[in-house]
TrEMBL record:
Family matches, as InterPro entries: Calcineurin-like_PHP, Metallo-depent_PP-like
Protein name in UniProt: Calcineurin-like phosphoesterase domain-containing protein
Top-rank lineage group of the source organism: Bacteria
Domain Calcineurin-like phosphoesterase: 9-161
Lineage, uppermost ranks: Bacteria, Bacillati, Actinomycetota, Actinomycetes, Micromonosporales
One protein family per Pfam: Metallophos
Length: 282
């Protein structure tokens, strides 16, 4: 788990899936805050940075939103440079698509084997440093001053405390059916759960940090940009599966306590591409 400070701006995005333009849009916002001076901002990616569709524009389905070309290798390279330039300020959470390179189940959303498809784009041995980097990505981030916790998927994991996250082994899930992952223990839940009852979500938040009241996550596609099924769950879609005008990210003052998911959505969500026309977002 990564613990964010209680000062500065936080930018959080989810599920870029190889969309380089969306990556560069949030990085531009981050750099603008850096250049403005003041407290150091933080940029948090909530998993599934990798793996995108390879579909021609004329065959692109409506349900995937705006067309883009998967540029995962370049996105990963730029992500790594950014983290090296701002080592304490840029954070990547592990998603189920990164897990596919680290012992997670094989994914066949866009290709017969997502992980193999990406790794083949590197020279022999070239993916090894990327895999070592990803193996160190945390599973959750907590902003104690804001009372917000961030995960890739819904906060469905049953844990006693943050230390439980340190003990989770990534390997050994290769043959677990995808449909079973969310219910196969804390790691599966953290990477795969699409929802959880309010009480279970609150218990997860309390286990991470006593003052945590809101869970922000992605994994699922919300075509309108975000969805609050019920408190404390705020599901955010920044990129994959959305039209540019519907994509949102979270911008939040790390010193401001958040009372509810509704408050965070109302005051913290910003359009990733303010110039693009919303399609589903109201
Ligand atoms: Mn996911």
């Amino acid at each position: 788990m990564v613990t964010l400070p209680a000062v500065g701006r936080l930018l959080a995005v989810t599920d870029l899936h190889g969309n380089l333009a969306d990556f560069q849009a949030i990085v531009a916002r981050f750099r603008a805050i850096v250049d403005a001076g003041g407290p150091r901002p933080h940029l948090l990616f909530c998993g599934d940075l990798v793996h995108g569709p390879a579909i021609a524009p004329q065959a692109w389905p409506e349900h995937l939103g705006d067309f883009y070309v998967d540029q995962t290798p370049r996105l990963l390279a730029e992500a790594r440079w950014l983290q090296e330039a701002y080592p304490q300020q840029v954070h990547f959470l592990l998603g189920n698509h990164e897990h596919a390179h680290l012992g997670g189940p094989r994914l066949d959303k866009f290709h017969a084997d997502e992980a193999a498809h990406l790794e083949r784009q590197y020279a022999p041995g070239g993916f090894a440093p990327v895999r070592r980097w990803m193996a160190g990505w945390p599973l959750a981030a907590v902003a104690p001053g804001a009372g917000i916790a961030f995960t890739h998927a819904a906060p469905h994991a049953q844990i006693a405390g943050p230390r439980d996250l340190d003990d989770l082994a990534l390997a050994g899930y290769e043959s677990v059916p995808l449909a079973d992952m969310a219910s196969t223990g804390p790691l599966g839940a953290l990477l795969w759960a699409r929802t959880t009852p309010a009480e279970r979500g609150l218990a997860f938040l309390r286990a991470l940090h006593v003052g945590c009241k809101v869970a922000v996550f992605g994994h699922d596609i919300v075509r309108e940009g975000h969805w609050i099924e019920h408190e404390p769950l705020l599901c955010v879609s920044s990129s994959f599966g959305c039209y540019d005008g519907d994509k949102v990210y979270l911008e939040w003052d790390l010193a401001r306590p958040a009372g509810s998911a509704a408050e965070v959505a109302r005051d913290g969500l910003r359009r990733l591409h303010p110039g693009a026309r919303p399609v589903h977002r109201t």
